[in-house]
Amino acid sequence: PPGQDPLLLLKTLQLLWTKQELRKQLKEEIRRGFAGLEDPLAGLLAMLENSSDWKGKGHSLGYYITTELQLWIKEHPAVPQSGIQLKKLQARVLRILSQCPANLLDPLISIYQLHTADRNYLLEHVSHLYLKGDYKEAAILSIKLKLQPDQDVEKMCIPLLLQDKANVVEDYVGEYPELQSKLLQILDSWCEPGVNIRDITRPYQGLSRYKPEKFNHRTLSKLVFRLLDRFHVDPALCPNVVNQRHLRTLNYLFYKRFVEKTMTEENWADHVQSTAGDSRCLQGHLVQLLLRHCPGRAARWARHWGLPMDVLPPGLAEELPELHTQQRVEEATKADNYEDCKKKDCYQLPISRENIHFLQTWEETLQCWEKVLQPGQVVGVDMEWKPSFGMVGKPRVALLQMAVKDEVFLLDLPRLLEQAELEGEKEKEKLPRFIQMLYSDAAITKLGYGMSGDLSSLAATCSALKDIEKQLHGVVDLLTVDKQVDGLSPEHSHEERGVRQQEKGLSLLVHHVLGKPLDKTEQLSNWEKRPLREEQILYAASDAYCLLEIYERLCRDPESFGLSSDLMESLVGKRSIKPRAKKQLNKQEALSPSGQQCQGSQMETSRAPAPVSPREFSVVCDNMLQGLGRYLRCLGVDVRMLDNEDDHRKAAEIARQEGRVILTSGLPYQTLQSQVGEGRCFSVNCSEKAKEQALQVLKHFNVQVSLSDIFSRCQ
């Protein structure tokens, strides 16, 4: 009846909500109830104030009622209040907003027209939340009500950073370029030499959920670079953080050249020059590093940059000519020795130099497309770019390598794209169209190693290829088998099999399968510099061609490398991958590949298992599947998850003791399945997102999820 009590309506709705079979009546009852309330807006607040189910996460009754009222108001435009009555309702709803989950904020703000409320009143309310120590709630409400321009960005963001809520900070400044710049300048000022982070954090030591270990120069630097990248801000705004990154780059380059000895003098000098630039601080830092190992080089660089000779030890400047001559002789001897060693100990390209083609014009590329775009062709694809050493932005591809039997094509991508740009719209489309044709043709097998990172950089280089990862067919990423290759190649002796190799990534796979590692001394070259040196051309060709040889060898004799013929049949037959959603490391920075693609379990049963509810289904998730574990727990599944430091074998112990099914991926599956009963270990595809993985598990084990299972288990 008209004018009925909203609390009586609430009791009726609560009864319907608890009985699954009556849920269909719920929507009708809510709408009938609103029509019978004298003031539906005040009625909703009364219902929320007298119940608490809406305070948790997920779709509660309170959320259901609120969203239904929002729809009902659109159908009954005369309902919304105005004037003094609306102000009273707004004051009441603000008290609720500070306690409600994120999914209720937007509907309540819309229903009670909070964007029209007095701005000073809203700011005062947020300030009250802040003073109570509810920093996250204050920031989220400010974001929803767009109050940031009237607030102190430093005051709002420091507590959030100390509580490891950087994601909230990013959202807080997300729509306001001036606040982004101000925040970045503040963060950069904390990274100034001599600034003690503890002085900044001292006023907040009593903060709840305070994580001081998450607040230091290193994490601040990472946050600044993430913000610079996300908001496309000029890095010059943050000179202290950029300078720190350059200092770390110089240390890294020094290590690669003089400790690890895996970088040529020419590559090293090129990167040192571009990193130090005109900065006297960086130049002085490098000279001091060099003084410890090679004083002659220190003196040469000091003179090259015009640094005052007093940065050098007494007498060293006078000895410079003699040291310079001595060092040139040593380097020439080392270079000769290196060439001899390289030929003997590293993978050798099995094709002649005239079959490596460096292509810089569209006409030259036609011979490449003619051979590559053949049905049944197998193509090794790789890409090179200038190392960014952690600076802002995705790397841009400088060289695209394509290898077919007995031939390699090196495409000078920047030059080709630049020419196409000058020749007009029609010419601009040619190169991207051919690359798309290659990757989308299922009749052509494309081989790569960690292709998702390459394709991401390719998309950043050419906007016409931004969706290329969605069009992949006939792609084989050899990263899928890298970790599963057992030991070294059959030619290696038993003693060699016991020695841990120093190579990483593709070089290690080449060593395992073909018997010798790749020569990686040119990996950190400046690939944008033209002309390319002969060493760079041979390196780039080898990187692409070795993929053909690995693929051919593994397909011909998988058992010799500990691979089952089933795995290779699956790999060769399917020939397609779903690109990884995870962010890729810079190809030049990654010490070893991670997040490899994994094949789903081939385990099939003769008949579908009997249906089971999530509450009866218990699993243990391996430590690379924590996202899947959290998702299944949301669906009501009994989940245990290994910690990052746990050994995979712990999953088998837990499974046996507690009767759980093991969920794992990749190589550990082979080990774990033999330690539990048949059908008690399942391998999911680790290239999928958690939701897709969960659907795969539910389908395989015939787990039937009902609405009441969702969020039925503590998160």
From TrEMBL:
3'-5' exonuclease domain mapped to chain residues: 356-559
Q: Which CDD domains match?
A: mut-7_like_exo
Q: Where are the residues of the annotated region Disordered? A: 582-609
Keywords for the protein's UniProt record, in alphabetical order: Exonuclease, Hydrolase, Nuclease
Q: Does the keyword Nuclease apply?
A: yes
InterPro entries with a match to the protein in the record: 3'-5'_exonuclease_dom, Exonuclease_MUT-7-like, Mut-7_DEDDy_dom, Mut7-C_RNAse_dom, RNaseH-like_sf, RNaseH_sf
GO MF terms held by the record: 3'-5' exonuclease activity; nucleic acid binding
- Regions of compositional bias (Polar residues) in chain numbering: 587-605
A Gene Ontology BP annotation from the UniProt entry: nucleobase-containing compound metabolic process
The record's Pfam families line, in alphabetical order, gives: DNA_pol_A_exo1, Mut7-C
SUPFAM superfamilies recorded for this chain?
A: Ribonuclease H-like
Query: PANTHER family from the entry?
Result: 3'-5' EXONUCLEASE DOMAIN-CONTAINING PROTEIN, EXONUCLEASE MUT-7 HOMOLOG
Name recorded for this polypeptide:
Putative exonuclease mut-7
